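Look over this one:
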Amino acid sequence: METKPADGSEVQQTLAEHYHRIRQDSMLLCEPLETEDFCIQTMPEVSPPKWHLAHTSWFFETLLLKPFAKNYKEFHPKFAVLFNSYYDTIGEYHPRHQRGLLSRPSINEVYKYRHHVDKAMHELLLNSHHRDSKTITSRTILGLNHEQQHQELLLTDIKHIFASNPLRPAYKKASAAPQDQHNADTLNTQWIKIDGGLKIIGSSLNYGTDNITSKTDFAYDNEGPLHQVYVEDFMLASHPVNNAEYLEFIHDDGYKKPDYWLADAWKIINQQNWQAPLYWEKIDNLWHNMTLQGMQPVDMDAPVCHVSFYEAAAFARWKDLQQTGIRLPTEMEWEVATENLTIEGNFRDSDLLQPASVTAKDNNTLQQMFGDVWEWTQSAYAAYPGYHARPGALGEYNGKFMSSQLVLRGGSCATPLEHIRKTYRNFFYPHERWQYSGFRLAKDIT
């Protein structure tokens, strides 16, 4: 695709290239799928892959093309309802739990829809003389970050779809041989002291302004504003809780003892018969788990994954009863601990698409803070001091969900590296576990 604007504007050329690359990434993620895979919805939280491809296009069409592109003609008048996710200020939307009932439009028509939107966006982005160019740039960068969120959801939803199939199909071939389940040298947890005090956390960057000129200027509005917090000195585990450690909890009847569980959690694990992390099952008396490469023996040295906040909190309570003061970290503590760390790790870019074993030689440092698994914190997802949601649809993006959810930090093996920041606040309900979610422990200093 030609991306050079008529006046040679480097800013718009770079943004157009960035747009094309990220939109193409979504298409590449869907290449391993068969036509039949695109329509399936295995639970209300999972969206069919076809819906993700259409919704991300709807986002650009609704928030950019309709208000700013001269003479733009929408692809289909009813797509505005079918592919609106939850934006009440924009209008009606198809029920989330019924997305899997949409056999039409076909995936081929959705691809045509994406092409239609991309062509119009290309023309809009290269129009350097548009009177709303700052707003267009800012909203496009928001839209691209939104698309990367849906790319991660694509992978997590595909995994759930394939795991629900008795054939346990593989999304892609394994890039390496499965790890041995029994490793005598499983890494022991070390406690790293983190100095507390009066700290500044949060981001000064957000999409609440129209002055975002590049992807490096961007942060979601819920990451700000900057504000002061007081944190006591604390200890943080050197690595996330791994599968071997979590298996000890299972073997100690962790799912059978109410002492460890919050009241709501105890009801859920009994109603749904939870006995291990999601996707774990025994084959020939050995634990296996579903991955995007199909069923694999559980790698005991990899971070435990697909656990809910309830399970993370129960494990921490189990540990606390053995050694007083162990708990989950707060999100403030997590961010303070990463102050001097480089953002690197096992992200989607590595193409492993599952949490990796600990490989660091020095266990006296914080490991795997970024990538591998989103780490549950004990912090409720709420507004920072001074936060105000924007009016209209953009204010609905994060602000309307600040109730009954918990914060996760750090990104996962399904997150694009360029998408994550130290200030990034992910959030899910405490019972949800189909995401690549794990946790590490913290400890009070007494």
About this structure: The longest strand covers residues 374-380. The radius of gyration is 22 Å. The first helix runs from residue 10 to 29.
